[in-house]
Amino acid sequence: MAAGALHASDALLPTGWARDVVIEWDAAGRITWVRPHSGWSQTSGVARAAGPVLPGMPNLHSHAFQRAFAGLAEFRGSSDDSFWSWRDRMYRVANAVTPEDLDTIATHLFVEMLEAGYTSVCEFHYLHHDVDGRPYADRATLARAIVRAADRAGIGLTMLPVLYQQSGFGGAPPTDGQRRFINRTDALLDLVRALRVAHGDMVRVGLALHSLRAVTPEAMRDALAGLATIDPFAPIHVHVAEQMREVEDCVAWSGQRPVAWLLDHAPVDARWCLVHATHMLDDEAARAAATGAVAGLCPTTEANLGDGIFGFPRWGEGRWGVGSDSHITVNAADELRMLEYSQRLATHRRNVAATPREPHVATALTLAAAAGGAAASGRPIGALAPGARADFVVLDARHPAIADLPAPAALDAHVFASGRGRAIATVVVGGRTVVAGGRHPLRDDAASAFVRVRALLAARTPAP
Ligand code: NGQ
Ligand code: ZN
After folding, report:
1. What's this model's pTM, rounded to 2 decimal places?
2. What CATH class has 57-377?
């Protein structure tokens, strides 16, 4: 790949909006220089961006296979439909997906992500075994399908093989529906090692504990100790306190709520991402935020599943980022808007995410989510700054949603008022243009293959 440069009339740097900025990157796809007030002229030979330039958004939480199920559980099953009844339906799809299906679903999903402004994704990967629950001859078969799809689409990837061993607190055996997820701790660590073969700068490997429900304290300790010998800086993710039933079960088992239990029993620090840190008391939030861990917020999925509302104000200066999780929507702007709206609905206020330093809501949200998402990814991304990967999104200044608006207002309009379509013109990952004119070159082929697989899965999973 070649080195490159871009001129932006307006670019969102870590310190805020800057004008007349030249961004340069090297042949390895890393930003080498960011120069505001550059005095750019037509004759400089540097290409001009079509509109305001933003850091690419890291997507910090994905279960790729669930894209083929998105929107297909929005009908009444019983009078008490819940997260748990959704999960039963979701498991039926999980148990029908083949490696070829996963490759197709993930390729389409990653193309959608790129077109929507996500330039990197953390895959929380727990679908490990064949449909009968037996390991594939190559135990990384399904994980490799994700890596291949990310490579094909051109999105950065943090691969998080998931440890999953029990169906509930206290050693409850896994259910038949969970047969594809289960690994001994040493086998999971072997999978981490197997995935760490050179993928250059585009892939990082970490580890996830599915949830405190799904791993014993001993397994958690062994997994963390093993990971420390493989990569002491690797990202560690966990679903932590998504559902009230989970909180109640944790209290019944340990006498503590999940976040409090985790903070007392695990070395939680800046490597950690606490996914769905939804149900926390004030002191749990204060303690968790102070560790430097990233809160992994998935606002549209959390709304879709009826999880509850994250207490954004009490997270204070804590780090956070967004993920599309179940992929009920695949759009970074939608997650940021849903997050802000949930807070407005809960607090009866407006502009909750704005700060005295950064009064524009979408700018404050974008900068925080990019930095937190980057930390959760364990990759050098999420900032238009030297040393970071050249991952960025160029808005289309001619799109009616943002045309003629100053950059901070254009980003607010992009996030809150883009209406039909999106105002994204170009997406660049590691210095390579992957979306031009709002389109990824694989869009049509990936979509038609996806539609075929979704139909096949529906045929393989008739309603019980
Ligand atoms: C998952 N998804 O692992 O896909 C979960 C559901 C569970 C979300 N939590 C399964 N959104 O938590 O047991
Ligand atoms: Zn999840």
Report:
1. 0.98
2. alpha beta
